[in-house]
Write a structure and sequence with these properties.
Blueprint lengths: L1 H35 L3 E6 L1 H5 L1 H16 L3 E6 L2 H10 L6 E2 L2 E2 L3 H24 L5 E5 L6 E5 L3 E4 L5 E4 L5 E6 L2 H8 L3 E5 L1 E3 L5 E3 L2 H11 L4 E6 L17 E2 L1 H10 L6 H13 L4 E6 L5 H7 L6 E3 L2 H8 L6
Parallel strand pairs: 1-2, 1-13, 2-10, 5-10, 13-15, 14-16
Antiparallel strand pairs: 3-4, 6-9, 7-8, 11-12, 15-16
Helix pairs in contact: 3-5, 4-5, 7-9
C-alpha cells in the first residue's frame, strides 16, 4: 500500500511540474530502485541535521521512502553540537582536536545523556511520524561495538602543529558484532545507533560517530554509506561552496588533506569514507542533509548533490576504465 501511495505521489508531482521531464526522471530512477532493493545503506546523521527539526523531519520522510522500496537502512548519529551545548550549560568548555572530542569524566556523562538519550529518542520520534518502525540502541547493546580506550597519541591539529593528546574516555573500535542489526533488519525494523561503545570490563566509551558508521557499513557489507552533514560536501576551498568536489577517490582526497583543504569535522568524515571505500563499501557520500530531498537526489540521480567517494576499483567500474591498461 505504501509503495502504491508513494508512486502515485511521485507521478502526481512529476505531472504538476513537467509531465515529460517528470516521467523521464521517474523511469531513470527505476534502475536505481532495482539495484538497491534488499541492500543495506548506512546513513550517518550529523549534529547540524539533528538540531534542525524541519530538516530532521525531511530526512525521516526520505528514509521512510527508501525503506518502503525495500532498502535496508541503518541510521547512526552522534550529536556534537548538542553535547557542546549541554557541556557549556553545565559550565565546562568542550575541547576538540583535529575534529575529535577530548572526553573526560564529565564529557562522557554528557555524551551518554545526549547521544543515547535525547537525540536517539527524538530521531525515533521523527521516523515514527513517517510510519517508520525504528529501534534505538547504542554500540553497547548486544556487544554491537567493542572498543578499547585510546592511548595518548600524537596528532596534527588544524593549525598543522603536532601535539600529544590524551583523548580520555574515547574508544577505538576493536570488533563489530552486527547480529543485532541483522536481526532487526530481517524483521524490517530500522536500527538507530548512538555512537557509544563498550568493553568486557563494563566501561563505556565515546566513539566518533563517523567511525561508527564506517565500521558498521563495512561489517554489514553496505552498498552505500551516506554522511548527512551541514556542508554541501567536500570543498577544495572551504570558503567557496562552488568549489565542491563531486567525485573523488582516496588519492584525490589525500592530496586535499595534504594541502590543508580539509579540517575540523570534515577530516574524520573523509577519513571514514576512505576506509569504508577501501574496505568493501561500494560508494560513500557526503551531502548537506538539511537541503530538501538531498538524500533522494544523491541516491536516485546521476548528478547527485554532494561528494561521492569510491575506491580505485569502483572508480574504474563507474568510469568504465580498464585497470589493466
Amino acid at each position: 500500500m505504501r509503495n502504491h501511495i508513494l508512486l502515485t505521489f511521485i507521478l502526481r508531482t512529476a505531472v504538476t511540474i513537467d509531465s515529460s521531464k517528470g516521467i523521464t526522471g521517474l523511469k531513470g530512477a527505476l534502475r536505481y530502485v532495482r539495484a538497491y532493493r534488499d541492500n543495506v545503506f548506512v546513513v550517518k546523521l550529523g549534529g547540524e541535521v539533528l538540531a534542525d527539526r524541519e530538516a530532521l523531519d525531511r530526512v525521516a520522510q526520505q528514509l521512510g521512502l527508501l525503506s518502503s522500496l525495500s532498502i535496508r537502512i541503518v541510521v547512526v548519529h552522534g550529536g556534537g553540537p548538542q553535547a557542546n551545548a549541554l557541556s557549556r550549560r553545565l559550565g565546562s568548555e568542550p575541547v576538540m582536536v583535529a575534529g575529535r572530542r577530548v572526553t573526560d569524566d564529565g564529557a562522557l556523562e554528557v555524551a551518554t545523556m545526549v547521544y543515547a538519550g535525547s537525540l536517539n529518542v527524538s530521531t525515533l520520534a521523527a521516523l515514527r511520524a513517517h510510519e517508520v518502525q525504528a529501534v534505538g540502541l547504542s554500540g553497547v547493546d548486544a556487544e554491537l561495538l567493542t572498543a578499547r580506550r585510546r592511548p595518548p597519541v600524537t596528532v596534527v591539529d588544524d593549525a598543522g602543529v603536532s601535539r600529544e593528546i590524551d583523548f580520555g574516555h574515547v574508544g577505538d573500535i576493536e570488533a563489530v558484532d552486527p547480529r543485532v542489526l541483522i536481526t532487526l533488519l530481517d524483521a524490517r525494523f530500522m536500527p538507530v545507533v548512538a555512537s557509544l561503545a563498550g568493553d568486557g570490563d563494563g566501561n563505556v566509551y565515546n566513539v566518533n560517530a563517523d567511525t561508527v558508521a564506517e565500521s558498521l557499513a563495512v561489517a554489514l557489507r553496505a552498498q552505500k554509506l551516506l554522511f548527512l552533514t551541514g556542508a554541501p560536501g567536500v570543498l577544495r576551498d572551504r570558503t567557496d561552496p562552488s568549489s565542491l568536489v563531486t567525485f573523488a577517490d582516496p588519492d584525490d582526497l589525500a592530496q586535499l588533506m595534504a594541502s590543508g583543504s580539509l579540517a575540523g569535522g570534515m577530516r574524520p568524515k573523509v577519513e571514514s569514507c576512505i576506509r569504508a571505500a577501501t574496505g568493501g563499501v561500494e560508494r560513500t557520500h557526503i551531502i548537506d542533509g538539511r537541503l530538501p530531498d538531498s538524500v533522494l537526489l544523491e541516491v536516485f540521480t546521476g548528478a547527485g548533490c554532494g561528494t561521492m567517494i569510491v575506491g580505485r576499483k569502483e572508480k574504474a567500474t563507474y568510469l568504465g576504465v580498464d585497470l589493466a591498461t
